[in-house]
Amino acid sequence: MKGSVCMKKKCLACISTLKYKQVSNVEVVCSSTLKYKQASNVEVVCSSTLKYNQVSNVEVVCSSTLKYNQASNVEVVCSSTLKYKQVSNVEVVCSSTLKYKQASNVEVVCSSTLKYKQASNVEVVCSSTRKYKRASNVEVVCSSALKYNQASNVEVVCSSTLKYKQVSNVEVVCSSTLKYKQASNVEVVCSSTLKYKQASNVEVVCSSTLKYKQASNVEVVCSSTRKYKQASNVEVVCSSALKYNQASNVEVVCSSTLKYKQVSNVEVVCSSTLKYNQVSNVEVVCSSTLKYKQVSNVEVVCSSTLKYNQVSNVEVVCSSTLKYKQVSNVEVVCSSTLKYKQASNVEVVCSSTLKYNQVSNVEVVCSSTLKYKRVSNVEVVCSSTLKYKQASNVEVVCSSTLKYKQASNVEVVCSSTLKYKQASNVEVVCSSTLKYKQASNVEVVCSSTLKYKQVSNVEVVCSSTLKYKQASNVEVVCSSTLKYKQASNVEVVCSSTRKYKQASNVEVVCSSALKYNQASNVEVVCSSTLKYKQVSNVEVVCSSTLKYNQVSNVEVVCSSTLKYKQASNVEVVCSSTLKYKQASNVEVVCSSTLKYNQVSNVEVVCSSYS
């Protein structure tokens, strides 16, 4: 082979041919070694061994090595091994190495390995490395590996590294890896690193890794950037992100930024984020920013975020920002987020922002979210926002949602919003819904809305419905509406109905309505009915109505009926009506009847009226 052909192809192939004629059970063993040197230092070495057994194991083994050196230092080395067995495992192994150096220091290295098995796992492995240096220190390195398995997992792996240095110390490094599997999980992995150095020592480093699998979408991405300036304005910037989703979604994310200026305007900025979710999702996130200016407008800015999940997923997140200016407007800004996960899935999230300006408007903003999940599905969610300004408009906003699910279907939902402004319009709004279901059909539903304004129109509205069913048919229903206005028309309306049935037929029904107006017509209306039956036929019925007007006519009306039957036929009936008016006409009416029958026919009847 001539040197020009090797220069064009940059690879040398070794081809061997085996011709075999069968007789009966002939065994052939042949080993040969070929050494070949051409003009100056071209050398070929090839050794092969052939073993043939007809019955089961036909085997061919061939190994060859080729070394080629051209004018100065071009060298090609190729070695291959072929193993062939007829029955099941046909195997071919070929490894080659190519080293190529051009004028000064251009070098190319390529090594490949081929493994071939016919029956099930056909595999091809090829790895190559190429180093290229041009004028002064430009260098390219590329290495690739190819693995091929026929049955299910066709895989290609290719990794390359590029290093590039320009005039002084500009350097670019890029490495990539490609993995390809045919049947289910196609995967691509690419990692690159960029290093750049300018006049003094400005450096940029960026590395990224991408893994892609088709079937179960496993993905890993990592990118980082670093900037560093030393002499006057020292600056470091590093951001990296790694995402990995496998069976148990392992995720690592780390991003950091550091900016530091010393002499006049001292500035430090550092933000870092680490997220790591393995079996027990350990997560740490910290970001901080510090800005400090000394001479006239002293300013300090610090923002930090901490997320921490340990073995049992305990997570804490805190981010704060501090801005401080000395002369006139001192301002403090702090935002924090707390995520806390305990043994299994208990999570607490709290984020707060504090802004403080000294002269006029002190402002505090805090928003928090609480998520709590216990063993199975107990969940508590609470989010609140607090805004506070000192001079005029102090405002508090809190909204919370509580979801609680216990073993089977116990659920509690509560959402509330609180708005508070100090000077004029203080407002509180809270709406909550409570749903509670126990083992069979115990249900509690409560929804309430609270609106509160301080100066003139203070209003409270609460509407709740309670349904409670116990073991068999115990039911409690209560719905209430509360409206409250302070200045003139304060009104409260509440209506509730309660039905209670115990073991067999004990029933309690109570409905009440409350209307309250502050200025003149305060009115309360409550009516209730009680039906009670004990073991056999003991019955109590009581209904009462209460009307209350504040100024003149306070009225109470209550009527009750009692029926009582004992063992055989003892019966007591008592009904009473009470009317009560405060000013002049208090009236009480009560009538009762007693019937008593003994063993034979003794009967006692007594009725009274007053």
Automatic annotation (TrEMBL):
Protein name: Uncharacterized protein
Record organism: Dreissena polymorpha (Zebra mussel)
Native organism taxonomy: Eukaryota, Metazoa, Spiralia, Lophotrochozoa, Mollusca
